[in-house]
Amino acid sequence: MKNFTWSIVALSSLLTACVGAPDAIDAPPAPAAPAVDAITVTGRCTTAADCAPSRSPCTAARCVLGVCSYTIVGVVPPVACNDNNPCTFNDRCVGSLCAGDRELSLLSGAQPPAAEGWVGYGAAAAATSQAGTRVRIDTAPLAASASATHGHTLPPNVFATHDLQWELTVASADHNYGDGTAVLFPDFSGFFGASGPLGPVEREQMIFFDDAEVGWGDLTQTAAVNTHASHLYRLHVTTTGGAELSVDGSVVITRPSMSVAGGTIGFGDQTNDPGLNGQFDIWNVRLVPQPQCQ
Ligand SMILES: [Ca+2]
Ligand SMILES: [Ca+2]
After folding, report:
1. From the CA of 92, which ligand is nearest?
2. How far is the CA of 233 from the centre of ligand 2 (A)?
3. Residue 139: nearest ligand to its CA?
4. Looking at the CA of 101, which ligand is closest?
5. Which of 255, 155, 160 is nearest to 206 (CA)?
6. Residue 39 pLDDT exceeds 80
7. CA of 191 to the centre of ligand 1 (A)
8. pTM (predicted TM-score)
9. Beta carbons within 8 Å of 269's beta carbon, 6+ residues apart
10. CA 190 to ligand 2 center in whole angstroms
11. Is the domain defined by 104-293 classed in CATH 3.30.70.1350?
12. Is there a contact between 262 and 133 (Cβ–Cβ < 8 Å)?
């Protein structure tokens, strides 16, 4: 009996030691430290929304098995993006990078102007593609008062970064002050273009091509050029708002002011004066980068 009593006391003491007042061993654990930033330190996540935004418009965050990863958003068809570079056009994703083209074709010559976004005025059907290489404007067989012009919008403020370049040959042409059967408009509002001095100066500042010379529509400057031969023409709008026309790399005429505010260019036979008709070919009209964009 004595042994039994001791055993009860001993067991009671043992239980007291285990469940009695808290001591250093029994104290509840200290609260866990706040979780570290799972995104920036470990890349762990529950959903894609937990991941840091992608630094490229061409990749997107995904949460895969609790870990952030960044994958290309798409390849075919290319995803449009903005590279924030005014020197490039048609920005699109190339792999994980956003990039664009430094040149922009406006008229290849491979098809009629309307197929490449040009709006026709007057006898627009007079423009045809020749052998898939150039566009021909031929008003010679038409009524004496025929005109045929085409306009194309440009990217905003594009003359700050690019020049307009084209190739052209004249078969037969004529011009007088403010009129021409083969012209290029740096600014164009439709039909024959508008004329100053109270309104826009589209016809004054247009470039005419005659059989043996080129010049501004207002005849302020002209230059002898054999336009029946193929040449590379280039229009540069200067930082001071003037303009230079180059033929095969050499400046031939300039003017102190050039308005391009309308954001549309044009070409064609712009005159409906009786008897002013002709024929010329134009192709490879494109925007090419100025030196600071190369
Ligand atoms: Ca761009
Ligand atoms: Ca005409």
Report:
1. 1
2. 22
3. 2
4. 1
5. 255
6. no
7. 31
8. 0.80
9. 122, 126, 137, 139, 146, 147, 148, 149, 180, 181, 182, 183, 276, 277, 278
10. 15
11. no
12. no
When pLDDT is averaged across residues 171-187 and rounded to a whole number, the result is 97
Give the ligand whose atoms come closest to the C-alpha of residue 126.
2
Q: What is the mean pLDDT of residues 31-58?
A: 67
Q: What ligand has the least distance to the C-alpha of 192? A: 2
Q: Write down the number of H helices and E strands in the chain.
A: 2, 21
Q: What is the Rg, in whole angstroms, of the alpha carbon atoms belonging to the chain? A: 37
3-state secondary structure 119-182: EEEECHHHEEEECCCEEEEECCCCCCCCCEEEEEECCCCHHHCEEEEEEEEEEECCEECCEECC
Q: How far is the CA of 192 from the centre of ligand 2 (A)?
A: 10
Distance 117 CA to ligand 2 centre (A): 23
Mean pLDDT across 231-247? 98
Residue extents of the structural domains in the chain = 38-101, 104-293
For residue 219, the CA-to-ligand 2 centroid distance in Å is: 18
CA–centroid distance, residue 129 to ligand 2 (Å): 19
Distance (Å) from CA 182 to ligand 2 centroid: 9
Q: How many other CB atoms sit within 10 Å of the CB of residue 53?
A: 10
252: which 2 tokens?
Answer: 């031939």
Q: What DSSP string describes 255-287?
A: ES----TT-EEEEEE---STT---EEEEEEEEE
Average the pLDDT over 100-113 and give the result: 97
Ligand nearest to the CA of 271: 2
Residue 197's pLDDT is 76
Task: Kindly state the greatest CA–CA separation across the chain.
Answer: 142
Ligand nearest to the CA of 88: 1
250-255 and 243-247 beta bridge pairing: antiparallel
Token digits for 72? 């290309």
